[in-house]
TrEMBL record:
<dbReference type="InterPro" id="IPR011058">
    <property type="entry name" value="Cyanovirin-N"/>
</dbReference>
<keyword id="KW-0328">Glycosyltransferase</keyword>
<comment type="similarity">
    <text>Belongs to the STT3 family.</text>
</comment>
<keyword id="KW-0460">Magnesium</keyword>
<dbReference type="InterPro" id="IPR048307">
    <property type="entry name" value="STT3_N"/>
</dbReference>
<keyword id="KW-0808">Transferase</keyword>
<keyword id="KW-0479">Metal-binding</keyword>
<dbReference type="InterPro" id="IPR003674">
    <property type="entry name" value="Oligo_trans_STT3"/>
</dbReference>
<feature type="transmembrane region" description="Helical">
    <location>
        <begin position="12"/>
        <end position="30"/>
    </location>
</feature>
<keyword id="KW-1133">Transmembrane helix</keyword>
<keyword id="KW-0472">Membrane</keyword>
<dbReference type="Pfam" id="PF02516">
    <property type="entry name" value="STT3"/>
</dbReference>
<dbReference type="InterPro" id="IPR048999">
    <property type="entry name" value="STT3-PglB_core"/>
</dbReference>
<feature type="domain" description="Cyanovirin-N">
    <location>
        <begin position="799"/>
        <end position="909"/>
    </location>
</feature>
<dbReference type="InterPro" id="IPR036673">
    <property type="entry name" value="Cyanovirin-N_sf"/>
</dbReference>
<keyword id="KW-0812">Transmembrane</keyword>
<feature type="transmembrane region" description="Helical">
    <location>
        <begin position="302"/>
        <end position="320"/>
    </location>
</feature>
Amino acid sequence: MGGTGPLSGAGAAALAWRVLLWVVLIGLLLEAGYRAYDIRLWAIKDYGPIIHEFDPWFNYRATEYLAQHGWNKFFTWFDHQSWYPLGRPVATTIYPGMQITAVFLWQILQRWDSSWDLNQVCCYMPAWFGAATSLFTGLLTFDALAGRDAGPMPSGAAVLGAAAAARCMAIVPAHLSRSVGGGFDNEAVAIGPMVATFAFWCRALRPGLSWPWSFCAAVSYSFMAASWGGYIFALNMVGLHAGLLVFLGSAGNLYAAYSLFFVVGTLGAIQARPVSVLVWFRSGFERPRLRTGAITFSSRGGLCFTAPVGFLIVLLRVLLRPWRADADWFMLALGAVSYFFARKMKRWGCAVAFLADVALASAEFRLGRSEHRRGAWLDQPVPRLLRLAAVMGTCYLLKPQVEEFLHFCDHKARWSLSHPQIVTKAKDGTLIDDYRQAYGWLRQNTASDARIMAWWDYGYQIAGLANRTTLADGNTWNHEHIALLGLALSSPQGEAHKIARHLADYVLVWSGGGGKDDVGKSKHMARIANSVYRGHCNEDDCDQYGIFPDGQPSKMMEASLVYRLCGRGSLDERLFREVYVSHHRRVRVAQVLDVSASSRRWAASAEAKRCDAPGSWYCPGSYSPGLQELFDPNATHQEALDYQAAYATRVQEQLKEKPLPNQEGLPPGSYLDSCRGCLISGTRLTCSHCRAPGSPSIASNLEYQKCPLPQINNIQGRLQCEPKPNAASIPRGGYQRSCKGCDMQGDVLHCSHCGTASGNQVPASFEVLRCPAPAELDNDNGRLTCRGVPNDLACPPGPYLKSCQGCRSEAGHVSCALCRRADGRQVAAEAAAGRCRWPAQLENQDGELVCSGSLAGPYKQSCSKCQQLDDVLSCECAKSDGQRLVSSYEVSRCQSPAELHNREGKLTCQGVPNGRRLPPGPYLESCEGCHVFKETLHCSHCLNAEGLQLKSSLEVAACLSQQRKPENVNGAPSTGGRWPVSARGHYTSTLGHGHTVRGHSGLAAMLQALAALDDATLLTVITETLQRRPELAPGVVNGAVPDLTYAPADSLTKRRATGRIKQVTGATGVGFIDCPELKAVFGHDVYVHKNQVGAFPIGTEVNFAILLSKDMKPQAFDLQPTGAARGAAVQRVGGPDHGCFAIHALFGVTASPMEIPGERALVADGYWCATLGPLLILKPPILEKHLWPIPSQALRSLDVNTGPLGVLTTLWGTLLLHEPLKARLGHERVLKGVCGINVAASCGLAALTFLAPSRLLLAGLAAQVAGFAAWQATSFAE
């Protein structure tokens, strides 16, 4: 009878287990979401809320238009400010879901907090949707692992897989690249709805109520279709899965779910105009057309290894349990499609996360219960325990790969993906803001209707930031118009001006160099122009246009407008005038002179608009007659005739430079495919044009009769002989795949042709004896190197082990046989490891082993060759003028949170914390680490004129007036080590009026003036002085008490301190209390007599009063347990621990103090450890970051004798309250032991769960947690 009730024992255990798993799942998913949000904010933290790149600026401009003009005007917006003079129909060429969502969120946030502006919302949206994507990824994986017949009871494998998948999606770089803060692009918003579509679709196929989940899938798909052109991928994926299930004979909710999804999803999708034109003519199985980053996972870390394993596990699940494999088939299909796209687009599909996490969670998945014979044996205790051991071993083996993957993701997100591009930083940390400054100049210094000619990459930024008319942008919908723009920029100045004067008022170019400026892009401009305007180049690929390997431009490039606009040649000032150059010379703006007024009037007239119907909003513009006449063969205008004549003359001259056909009878070889104008001249083969990557064709010749083989190749524009085959006697190694002509000459291996990263082939050699087996030789960018020489296990750890091989450690000395240099060579190196103190480590600096500095700080950006020996760090640091100086610093003087900086070639420590209540003065600008002790101001880091930081001190009691302020005079006086204090005791103090008083005579005059005041006035002066200069109070009190007066009672009841008893010496009776606050003021621990300590054990945290001895040292009196009433009698000995001391000691987690009385704190420690101990073993970042102790109001005093609830709810509370045990072993030992026992018991319960299918043993842990909650509730009630 007892087992059939609504909440029997087994039912209660199952309910507790289910609730616990759901709570764990929700908590882990929220942690993954927070991680996804936080890692995407690096760009905003470093640069502020700035829109990134190019396309997001159009998205932001469209969002602004929607917010300002409303829904109706947005969907009838023909933008004549872009693609001048044609314009762009925005309503039919945009997916508006992102803009609508941004405005919707902005309006909601405005109601909540009016400080939110539209730019902030657009910058934070990618991070918000990135977090949502991670959550939906976890839910999709959870559904796939739970199975179609899973009820409300989630499995541990499903929870583990969901958490791992969500965390993976949160940090994987390929998804980060499309969703960092500020990356306001379509993919950032649409990938989340895509994953949500998959999650809801898989959930709709499970037994039970299906239509709500199918409806949610359709809505998510509709939202994706309104936001991104990749919506067809989601539609095809669902259609593929449905068709596969129909083919396999699946029943259940498939037909109803797919019908509802297709109908509702299609109706929702066609509301977006770009979709409505196409969707009626497409089936659900059309080939996806994804061009940029549609699939969002990178092949890095352990994913590429675990995903195939997960794929095989899913296939095994399908074969062993076909009755519940709907979601498994979806995972297989998604994995196959994703791998297909990974080969096409160099990215992994979403399925990589799911499949990888299936592999990690495979130890606990269920292959069927007892009602199905196949797979039932896996539920037996022994197989389940074996699976547990297997997954634990797998996790242990994969731990290095996982740690490397996490580090790679964090580093990638911080340093590679979080740069707005429109704003960047130099290597020294200097902010480079040239692009925004240039657009700001355009906005402030040009007319509002000014037209800006620039390459189409920059159109979005010019329109969004400068609010000026542009000729083209990233929409690239009109190839002929872009060709006209490319023709103007890549033509000579005279021809370019005749085009530009009809289109633009200014020309903007990027001129930063390094291949990313417009000179590097200009070959694309010429090729696009030549595809429309034939003859612009003499060959289709414009081979004649470019820069040669020696940096010299070709004839056509040197004459082009863009080359001269970038500052590499002179401009014709009759045609163009340079009007702006940015601070770092990355952007230049030139004004177009003699602009055609008739063409400007034409573009603004109604005649130029070609509306599709009267009164329609769709009204594209047209070119002016003057511009069209330039390309009209029947033109009569003189400007057009001059342009056509100049163009024809240039074409004829370029045809003369076109290479001739190759001569007959040439020697064979691959050069015949890429070299032209080749002929035999005597014994030499000469070619006038040999193609080279990234360069115009180069002339080359070769003594072909000296080649060992009758075969000639073109290598990077140079004719080279085909090398002879490798000899059979050469050692094995990977170099044989990229090196040819290899042969042994004594002990040295010589190769005549080893390939480099640039495609060249160079000779290389290596002494074979330096590479003993099992190591092998390899080709490292044209150099033969040895790889695989093992290192001694006794070698100290350090980064040098990644680039050094054959390392041995003997008697504190490390020697390595092969350390890689920057040029690729491998040399021997050695170092005295015994002088490299931890945390400093040995590293390889260009073939030399040095002890790298352990100090953090920005000095590493401008200092090199840093080496730490013992406690001294030495670096070669750069000054602002480029000169480099050798500077040293004591490591022990610059500890965290301080950091080391480079100050004009000198290492200095900055950020050393000061003490409290320091006297004001200009010394604070150049001194750090200051505190007041015994009427003396001590500073550990005062800067002198030479840039050194010295220890200095000053007797502050000498400065009696507020107008006197200490100052730093060159860091230290000539007497050595003190502030400016002479041997006779004179001091220097700066007066507020700007003059200085020196010596005893000034002090005597001041004392005489003060003594002449009446009592009330003098008392006011002293009181006000002490309030403004509280550091003087100890000296005043010490001079008055006890000779002139008695100490007040408030000195024992107010201004009390808290600390921990460190030690008590029995012989002398003197002890010490560790109090960080007082130690910062006085420089040492607080003295305490053993009579004051009484029965308090060592380590107890106590509250005490402070009195000063005659030599101004603090002493503790009236010791009381922390949290007890001040001045109250001590009822019981044995103060509370600092939070959970055992947690702090065992797991390295620091908790804040809990101000609670005596024994109650011990019970709190027990419950704190019992609840969080197992979780703290893993130390998840979110828990470690936000961990706080139990609130003090929840731990009000409870008499343990009359309130047995605090003892009976857990065994550990009883042990902690056992007085004889504490007296015998000590409070700390008991607490550590109890926490350790609890952790071990919790782990044992988790392990035993795999041997108990009913999970009854977990009821103990659930009851423990429930008892803790009830105990807190009781505390609150009382």
